[in-house]
Specification:
Layout (H helix, E strand, L loop, with lengths): L8 E2 L44 E9 L2 E9 L7 E11 L2 E10 L10 E3 L3 E4 L5 E2 L4 E5 L5 E5 L5 E6 L1
Parallel strand pairs: 1-8
Antiparallel strand pairs: 2-3, 2-11, 3-4, 4-5, 5-7, 6-9, 9-10, 10-11
Length: 162
């Protein structure tokens, strides 16, 4: 997500300020099991990704061309599995863009993270507006928000839980 006003989105974060408060990460039954959603994906507590990271997160990049919302989903999985999906939208000089990126878990995280993600790939979106990004590190911050940092540039975005 370059967000530099050129109307393109990349799989990499660009600095911005996000607003909103973190929300409850979910519920479980008295036995501690996560309710089934009918999905074949692993439950939030099954796999390498720490449960606190799993869920939907949002932020926005504001620049001269407008507001560029970002929606990040972290799913459960093992090293090599796609665990991150990023949806990037925003205005361009001739309309708008919509990009969807996926990234794999690159290394086994500790019990509290951080997550090391491999380079993102474009799942949906035109090459004129959507460019794959480099490796990133995802960290939970003390206030419950999530920070995704580009490993090469150090640029980061802070997301809040939805």
């Amino acid at each position: 997500m370059r967000g530099d006003g050129d109307g393109t989105a990349g799989g990499d974060p660009t600095p911005t300020r996000s607003t909103g408060a973190p929300q409850d990460p979910g519920t479980s039954d008295p036995a501690g099991r996560t309710p089934s959603t009918g999905s074949t994906a692993p439950a939030a507590d099954e796999g390498a990704v720490p449960t606190a990271y799993v869920g939907d997160w949002t932020t926005a990049i504001d620049n001269a061309s407008g507001t560029h919302p970002r929606s990040l989903t972290i799913a459960q999985g093992e090293v090599g599995d796609t665990v991150m999906t990023l949806v990037a939208d925003g205005p361009t000089d001739t309309g708008s863009y919509h990009c969807v990126f996926d990234a794999p878990l690159a290394a086994e995280p500790s019990a509290d993270g951080p997550l090391r993600l491999g380079p993102s790939q474009v799942r949906t979106g035109p090459a004129t507006n959507c460019a794959p990004g480099g490796s990133t590190t995802v960290t939970l911050l003390p206030d419950g928000s999530l920070q995704r940092t580009n490993d090469d540039t150090g640029e980061s975005l802070v997301y809040t839980r939805q």
